[in-house]
Amino acid sequence: MRLIIDTDTAGDDTFSMLLAMKTPGVTLEAVTICNGNVDFDQQAENALATIEAAGKSGEVPVYLGARRPLLADWEPAQMHGADGMSGANLPRARQRPEEMHAVDALIERIMAAPGEIEMIAQAPLTNLALAVSREPRIAKALKHLWIMGGTDNSVGNVTPCAEFNFYIDPEAAEIVFRAGFNITLSTWTLTLGSSVFDAEQLAQIDGHETPLTEFYRKVSDTPRKVAEQRYGKVICTHPDTLTCACAIDPSIITASRNAVVRIETTGTITRGHSAIHPAKLGSRWPEYHENARIIESADNGAFFRMLERALTT
Ligand code: BDR
Ligand code: CA
């Protein structure tokens, strides 16, 4: 599998990268950085440090993309600490970012291998919206686009109506959903339903004491503490990591449905909301055509074993 990850590298973004780099049969061909979780340059350092931690220094190019959302003011996420890595204080990586802009790199790489590359979009969708606006043919040339974002008719994590990635750049998300990509959507609703590791699972990973389980333990420290305050128990959510796991092994998806997805860009209460409708609206409202598959549930145990294996081998 040939993969590109677009990321606002912090916490679960880094575990997604590790899963891709450490799973046999997956080639992580490039990482593109987008505005999102924390300071943009810090995110680039986090991505480079993650590549170094995986023993892949110099093998996975990192391209810098859009530093700002298209229209909205950027706001940091609250889940991952100021550095996005729970203050893990990782050594500065030897590898440095590429000169080419991420938007150019996406277009060049996708157009050079039509039908071969899959992409995980685990950040606000600014880079991808810019890329498909400049070169609309990437929508059909990309084999599959796995997006983490939105909610599936339940509450968000930034506002009751909106999840972080779509809330930060709703205009970009709406452009991407209307562009004709082959999309599978992994929502915040799925995150809470299928990506959570409980205290026992966390203890099992921590117990291995490999360099990567140590990385995981340190980098997930703030999300674990936030969850303890918010939910009264130590758990860890993995929105991006579960998205990556579903892309690598779609057999862990236990329920999904096709749908029409549009993103609210003008609502005051609902800005960034993912409006998800049944697939068959096109006969009455032609502009509402089926454009995504929504993952409704995934096998938590299988996901856990995939990540555990990636961190211990
Ligand atoms: C999304 O926001 C980020 O904080 C996570 O990395 C994930 O991509 C979840 O809402
Ligand atoms: Ca992310």
Automatic annotation (TrEMBL):
Gene3D superfamilies: Ribonucleoside hydrolase-like. GO terms for cellular component: cytosol. Residues 3-304 form the Inosine/uridine-preferring nucleoside hydrolase domain. CDD domains: nuc_hydro_CeIAG (cd02649). This is Purine nucleosidase. GO terms for biological process: purine nucleoside catabolic process. PANTHER family: INOSINE-URIDINE PREFERRING NUCLEOSIDE HYDROLASE, URIDINE NUCLEOSIDASE. Keywords: Glycosidase, Hydrolase. The lineage of its organism: Bacteria, Pseudomonadati, Pseudomonadota, Alphaproteobacteria, Rhodobacterales. InterPro entries: Inosine/uridine_hydrolase_dom, IUNH, Ribo_hydro-like. It comes from the Bacteria. It holds the Pfam family IU_nuc_hydro. GO terms for molecular function: purine nucleosidase activity.
